Amino acid sequence: MNGGPAAPNRTGPSDGGSSISRRSALAAAAGLTVSTSGCIRQARDILVPNNIQQLSLTITTLPADSDRQSIRLSRELADVFGTVGIDVSFDIRSPVDFRRTVLYDHEFDVWIAEHPGGTDPDFLYEALHSVYTDESGWQNPFGYTNLTVDDSLETQRQLEGEKRREAVTDVLEQVAIEQPFVPICIPDQHRAVRTDRFDWDERALATPQGYLGIDPAPDVSTLRATHTDSRPTSNLNPLAVDYRGEDPFVDLLYDSLATETADGEIEPWFARSWEWDAGTIDVRLRTDCPFHDGEPMTAEDIAFTYRFLANTRLDDSEAAAPAPRYRGLVEAVDSIEVVHRDRVELRIDAGRPVGERALLVPILPAHVWRERAGGANGAGGATIAQRTAEAVATENVPPIGSGPFQFAERTEGEGLTLERFDGHFTLRSGVDLPAPTVDELTVRVDPPGAAAQRVVDDTADVTTSPLEANVVAGVDQSGSTRVLESPSWSFYCLGFNARDAPFSNPRFRRVIAQLIDKEWLVDEVFHGHARPVATPVTEEWTPESLEWNGTDPETPFLGTDGEVDEDAVEVAFESAGFRYDDRGRLRVRQ
Same domain, yes or no, for 517 and 462? Predict the structure, then answer.
């Protein structure tokens, strides 16, 4: 297991019976430092004049036409950072370039954007465990290493019930102290829908199943969606982290053994049922189910999927090439065995709550993806690292899945059409699962500000992208348009690149966290359509010690109403081991 360096031994040799305590000695040393700080500063400037410079920090984020909240958060925080003596610049990138820069290349100082989060706190295992430090994807993009946190993350995976809750609390409290990223808020999810054409399940819209089982009005055979992100029209690879945002389309094209409800419950999907026994999941599969190209889907495809996601090169090399998505889910599977054409057993190296989540990965047809195990050649413009398989770089158009919808056509950058897959098991009699109720699903790409208006104008039925906060109040609901709110578990955050100083220093990160007035930002940037948080999990998992009670209980804001207290910040930085020059600039070793 990879981990951070061991903490230095701070216990000095015996003082031979000196009456001065260690604490007193430290206090005396601190006093000496204060009283002679000017001399020390001058001496250091003489010795290393080019080694101490103003801290320069670049914020990597998204443009307003992709994520208005991210760029507004970035600008507000840049103003605060500049006020306290930090030189700030921006690196504004498209959604694809942003993810490649942050998730693949790890070339950033800090980033501000929406993290996908999860209904279960186990997403933090993937997000923070040090074994993932050099991998691509949402696996530890922060480069954070802490062996104690690793141990806690591993422990919570093995437990159930109240014991697991206690272990999760340990993780959350340690992360709140270390601040590898600063969770800012969990945004509300609002979507505009037409109620004269479909009956909607408000909560289900947070999941792909929200677009199945909806009752259409008479003579309605097309579900018209408007989406603000053009990436699904360019790439339909379920493994491509740079192209996968918040959309239901890939999940409608690919089945999984289980499905997750808006409440975080794991329920059977392609699996008819399963039994859990001593770390083994015995899964019974549905029979006579084809892929979209007519090839049968069997237990062999299930086994192939898990082996392929664990190593997309399908070789015996010690250096595996895992898929950059679903990494944490697949890692819970120790082995998989085909018992019968319609039955598999998964040996799980985790407790039941985490183990059953491993059933959520998309089932890949072996006859399509096996030939993509070769080395990538840069298809799709992705950054290609050593041993990256073609499977990660391919655009995967047309996609061959087994889901309730199948690919029909696309116009890159403009739209996408999916058709009902009549061979899908949800359409069989006796199957009590939400099924497609329309002949086709059409997706048109629109700017964020125009999407809701298309629903009002009756040229779209639903905004599959959540509405931006500044749009919600202005949607005309006087006719058949309604704005529905769904559960949300993604969160906006400031992420540090802990691979580099000073962002590797938790004391520095904690002071930066105290420059963020989360309550004020929720009002200013999100117009109140979000809730400030001290920890990035759902309210169900938030421990009492990290509940939001008007301020962050671990890193409270050093100021009032968005205005930072510069004197308090200077004291905080200097207490953390940093210093200012006589022009009020925060200085660090370069």
Answer: no
